[in-house]
Amino acid sequence: MTTTSIDAATSTAHMVVSQDGAKISYLTLGHGPAVIVIPGALSLAADYAAFGRALAEQFTVHIIERRGRGQSSPQGADYSIQKECEDVLALQRQTGASGLVGHSFGGFVALEVARNNPSFTNVAVYEPGVSIEGSIPAGWMPRFSQKLAEQKNLDAFVEFVRGINPESSGKLPPWLMKFMLLLFMSSHERKQKLDLLHECLREHQEEVRLDGSYENYREIEASVLLMYGGKSYNPRLQRTMERLAAVIPRTETHTFPKLDHFGIDQGAPQEVARVVGASFLREQATPPLR
């Protein structure tokens, strides 16, 4: 293991080696029971710093830098959800974490890695990227791939934003969506997202490939907190949450009325952290069922 200081006051960066030899970086904050945080698509570990700091008031928080990001190894030609799970399990072996938090695609990873893995006792997912009966659209992928091949990354990003949210941003013409992205997104944020478009495509391909496999989550023994924002403009989200709650044996659902899809990392990370921390501590204080 290698260790380098990122911010002596709040966190340190570490490295773990995954099953296939890939190097996976992660940030560590706080003291207490260990929890792993898995970021979503187009995101870096640093984007969850505010959430991590808030949760670190009660837990040791390890935010994984997923493949294809920062100091972690590239996704590789044989990338799959299994590789993501292996990375999380490598981090779990190193840290002894029994708690797991995932956002969007990271929530999908969290649910997959928790299957048949009783060493995770508490899982919290915020709007997990689980596709049920086509709830995650795939029609944007051919046009997106074409724009990437033409090295028109901003146009590709427009195709993604419009395609993944057909009921809202999908109704806007591409030129207007492009103008809005240039107007309202900082150059730093825009560069980060454009740099991760290839990774984003592979990740969403995995979500679509496993469409309808959510029944496998009956195998999860952990207590699972399902979270979503009341202002997430996705009519398919409510149905997805209901399906997940119906199959996962031990679930609790929490809605944040004033938050959207990015509530955990951008909207109100401290508020989400309080709910997650309270749920985890409550479960730890509850004697296991016999």
Automatic annotation (TrEMBL):
Residue stretches making up the AB hydrolase-1 domain: 35-274
Transmembrane region positions?
A: none
Q: Tell me yes or no: is Hydrolase among this UniProt entry's keywords.
A: yes
Matching entries from Pfam families are given as: Abhydrolase_6
Keywords per UniProt: Hydrolase
GO-annotated cellular components:
membrane
* Full protein name: Alpha/beta hydrolase
The organism named in the record is Ktedonospora formicarum
